[in-house]
Amino acid sequence: MRGLFITVEGPDGSGKTTQIKRIKEYFTVKGYEVITTREPGGTRIGEKVREIILDKNHVEMDNITEALLYAASRAQHVAEVIKPAVESGKIVICDRFVDSSLVYQGVGRNLGVALVEGINQVAIQGIMPDITFLFKLSPQIGIQRKFKQGNEDRLEREKLDFHQQVYEGYMQLETLYPQRIRGIDASKTIQEVHEEIVRYIEELLEGRG
Ligand code: TYD
């Protein structure tokens, strides 16, 4: 049986990493084979592309170059990891996927969602998540958390206005794809957020029979 492709999206610093670990545990205990991965990156080649994208010194990077690099990392990731794993019945949990490009490059960088969707169509080979958890947290709080940690990357260094636009982009996506995208209030406790996610996963599993 085909596995599941789960993605987690949301502003920087919204607590995705902790929850991904919890989702992995949930499936592992139930006996599923689980892979956790991330974008940009997730493969040897993709991690190299990630370094180029997020390098704080690359201040001259053109927006189209940025969008293409994210898509390039994604193409490798889909071909090498996501597609084979899902086809062989595994659960793949991915920290960010194409929705990130739609909102960061499409909306935040103003390239337009349609253009970024077009670029990514080639990269994703028709693979879309079965479910996407969208962590909702005000961009102010998320970015403050990142700066406190003191290792903000090139995108996190963008002005608050950029992050605000990204956030609004996410809200629009949620309205566009209500079946796939499940909004989660990320200001709740770790346990509360986890329980909400589990409820959605159980719903999804029941739907598959
Ligand atoms: P990520 O590794 O998720 O950073 P963090 O763990 O700090 O949230 O992503 C790195 C940055 O890249 C993040 O600011 C979001 C951005 N990004 C895009 O702009 N487009 C994309 O397609 C992806 C996958 C990420």
Total DSSP helices: 8
CATH topology: Rossmann fold
3D shape = globular
Which percent range describes the beta-strand content?
5-15%
Bound molecules: thymidine-5'-diphosphate
How many discrete structural domains? 1
What is the string of helix and strand elements?
EHEHHEHHEHHEH
The level-1 CATH class: Alpha Beta
Terminal-residue CA separation: 12 Å
Question: How would you state the average pLDDT, rounded?
Answer: 95
Low-confidence stretches: none
Strand order of the largest sheet: 2-3-1-4-5
Strand tally = 5
The CATH superfamily label reads P-loop containing nucleotide triphosphate hydrolases
CATH architecture level-2 label: 3-Layer(aba) Sandwich
> Biggest β-sheet, characterized?
5 strands, parallel
| Global structural class | alpha/beta
Radius of gyration: 16 Å
Helical content class: 55-70%
Explain what the structure shows:
The radius of gyration is 16 Å and the shape is globular. With 209 residues, it is α/β, with parallel strands linked by helices. The chain starts with a strand and ends with a helix. It has a single domain, classed as 3-Layer(aba) Sandwich (Rossmann fold). Strands 2-3-1-4-5 form a five-stranded parallel sheet, sandwiched between helices. Helix 1 packs across helix 8. It binds thymidine-5'-diphosphate. The site of thymidine-5'-diphosphate (TYD) has 15 residues, from helix 4.
